Structures are given as structure tokens and as C-alpha cells.
Amino acid sequence: MNEAQIDLAHTVALGLIDDEDHHAIQTIIDNEDPTLCSDFRRELRGTREVLAVIGASTPTPPPPSLRARLLAAIEAEEPPVAS
């Protein structure tokens, strides 16, 4: 697989395909090269598995001071500064 095909598998896994992507996917699936189709499906599965692990992970809560800093920044009409 080339980089464009790998990127396309990632795009499919994220659910971000458009008409052009759909055509490219169909071309890969309809391709007579079974290795290309198999590699594409494997990349797609792997990406979906990684996304599932990331989605199931426990998020880190923001620091308690974040809310107060954001509200103070909004009140002062200044953009918040990341620390």
C-alpha cells in the first residue's frame, strides 16, 4: 500500500469519507490485487482498534484552577493562556 491508501484507510476508520474517497475505496476493493485489498482492510481494522482503545481510555481531569482562570480571562476579555 502507498501512503495515500493508508491515509484513506485512516479516513474511513474516522468516518470522514466523501464522494471522492468513496470512489477511491471502491477502486481498492474492486482491484484484482487481493493483497492490496487485504492490506487495506487490515489497516482499517488496526486503525479502528486503536481508536477504540483511545475512546475507552480514562480522560485526565483538568486542573481545578482551570475554570477560575478561564472565567477570569473571559471577564477581562483576554484570551486564556495555556500553561
Through-space gap between termini: 41 Å
How many domains? The number is 1
Radius of gyration: 21 Å
| CATH architecture grouping | Orthogonal Bundle
- Give the total of beta strands: 0
Main beta sheet: strand number and arrangement? none
Helix proportion of residues, in percent? 55-70%
What's the oligomerization state? single chain
- Overall average residue pLDDT: 87
Please identify which CATH superfamily we are dealing with. Anti-sigma factor, zinc-finger domain
Question: What is the molecular shape?
Answer: elongated
Low-confidence stretches: none
Order of helices and strands: HHHH
Structural class of the helices, strands and pairings?
mainly alpha
CATH domain topology: Arc Repressor Mutant, subunit A
Q: Could you tell me the strand content as a percent range?
A: under 5%
CATH C-level label: Mainly Alpha
Number of helices: 4
Compose a concise summary of this entry.
With about 80 residues, the chain is mainly alpha-helical. The protein has four helices and no strands. The model has no long low-confidence stretch (mean pLDDT about 85).
List keywords for this structure.
mainly alpha; Arc Repressor Mutant, subunit A; 4 helices; elongated
Structure description:
The protein is an all-alpha fold and 83 residues long. It has one domain: Anti-sigma factor, zinc-finger domain (Arc Repressor Mutant, subunit A), CATH 1.10.10.1320. It contains 4 helices and no strands. Helix 1 crosses helix 2 and helix 1 crosses helix 3. It starts with a helix and ends in an 8-residue tail after the last helix. The mean pLDDT is 87.
